[in-house]
């Protein structure tokens, strides 16, 4: 997750984000013999789109940006996390000196302007120096959070190839139905894998965009040209996304074997009322039908090294119960080579707009307790870095005290 940044979806709508000062994490135990490290994912997303987590605003000096980034990495270490999903291509742009796409506007305020340093390169170095894994997080198809191509950098590929672009819901997207688009976005993303010793490649939930009422994603011409042989446009769209995922996985293995590839989808593949293989939920969005992402198949067939479904609801939610979805995803992952981690809505903790369950600082800790009963669950990833650092409701401090007192290393 659509959201401007990610995920804040309830069953059918976007939620607001809130931040207030919070408590520090519980200190690790002192004294006694050292304990062996666990192998589990303890991650955080670090979002850069719209300056969600970093930099705090565009136009800071390189020195200020570095200091803020290091502070967030230090916060991950304090919370005993092991992995950072760092968003390096938020809107068809780059947080490294890419030969394919312009510098991100979220660094300087002007798309294409050189910030005077290499954020991805330094993020990898600084993360590794702290014992953290760094996964480069890419958004494949989003071009802009507005619908005006003239606002893009003059040399932007979307301006050079306007036929690649679809305007939808007030934003610009590359058309996933064009083979030349699929080839280009892979080349642009894999450039970072070739240049830097990243530990993983990470996609979020945006493939075809989230539905906007009364709007049509205009891919008629691409469907006429490339959709022959498919029973429906929906099947063709799913095949387009499948191809991107399979080809990206193969490209990573070819360029840098050992780098892990994972995706964080919206938490509901399909409702059981739509498909008996689906979850007993009543979600307003289903990734298979609305985003054309067959996330269940990617796990069952082992296309991915890991999957992080965004289970951003509380235990007992009437339409999308965390416990129901956790069990469903564990069953999907059973017997697959794809490791299952769980995306956790730290940003909701203490937010008064989120309902009573999220005012209880123990809600997230109970999620981890429940997950421990399912051997398929290999860890958790928290959205997002600002809240990891500030912990506005003390929910992460509770998680650390209850579950992270023993050190851990990331699965490989």
From TrEMBL:
Keywords: Signal. This is Family 10 glycosylhydrolase. Residues 1-25 form the signal peptide. Gene3D superfamilies: Glycosidases. Pfam families: GHL10 (PF02638). Residues 40-354 form the Glycosyl hydrolase-like domain. InterPro entries: Divisome_Glycosyl_Hydrolase, GH, GHL10, TAT_signal. Coiled coil: none annotated.
């Amino acid at each position: 997750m659509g959201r401007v940044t990610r995920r804040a979806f309830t069953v059918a709508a976007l939620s607001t984000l809130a931040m207030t000062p919070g408590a520090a994490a519980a200190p690790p135990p002192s004294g006694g013999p050292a304990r062996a490290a666990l192998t589990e994912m303890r991650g955080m997303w670090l979002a850069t789109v719209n300056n969600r987590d970093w930099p705090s605003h565009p136009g800071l000096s390189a020195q200020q940006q570095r200091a803020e980034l290091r502070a967030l990495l230090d916060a991950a270490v304090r919370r005993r996390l092991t992995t950072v999903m760092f968003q390096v291509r938020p809107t068809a742009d780059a947080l490294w000196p890419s030969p394919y796409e312009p510098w991100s506007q979220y660094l300087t305020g002007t798309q294409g302007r050189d910030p005077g340093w290499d954020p991805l390169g330094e993020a990898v170095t600084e993360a590794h120096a702290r014992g953290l894994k760094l996964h480069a997080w890419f958004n494949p198809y989003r071009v802009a959070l507005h619908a005006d191509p003239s606002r893009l950098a003059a040399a932007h590929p979307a301006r050079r190839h306007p036929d690649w672009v679809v305007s939808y819901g007030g934003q610009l997207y590359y058309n996933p139905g064009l083979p030349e688009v699929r080839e280009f976005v892979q080349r642009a993303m894999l450039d970072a894998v070739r240049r830097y010793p990243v530990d993983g490649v990470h996609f979020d939930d945006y493939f075809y965009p989230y539905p906007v009422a009364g709007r049509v994603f205009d891919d008629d011409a691409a469907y006429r040209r490339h959709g022959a042989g498919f029973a429906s446009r929906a099947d063709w769209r799913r095949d387009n996304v499948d191809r991107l995922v399979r080809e990206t996985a193969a490209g990573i293995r070819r360029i840098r074997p050992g780098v892990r590839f994972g995706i964080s989808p919206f938490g509901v593949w399909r409702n059981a009322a739509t498909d008996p293989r689906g979850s007993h939920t009543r979600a307003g969005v289903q990734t298979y039908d609305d985003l054309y992402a067959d996330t269940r198949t990617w796990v069952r067939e082992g296309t991915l090294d890991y999957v992080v479904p965004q289970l951003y609801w509380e235990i007992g939610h009437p339409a999308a119960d965390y416990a129901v979805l956790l069990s469903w995803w564990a069953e999907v992952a059973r017997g697959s080579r794809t490791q299952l981690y769980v995306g956790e809505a730290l940003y909701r903790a203490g937010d008064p707009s989120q309902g009573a369950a999220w005012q209880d600082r123990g809600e997230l800790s109970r999620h981890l307790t429940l997950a421990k009963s399912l051997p398929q669950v290999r860890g958790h990833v928290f959205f997002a870095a600002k809240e990891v650092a500030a912990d506005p409701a003390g929910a992460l401090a509770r998680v650390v005290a209850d579950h992270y007192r023993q050190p851990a290393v990331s699965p490989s």
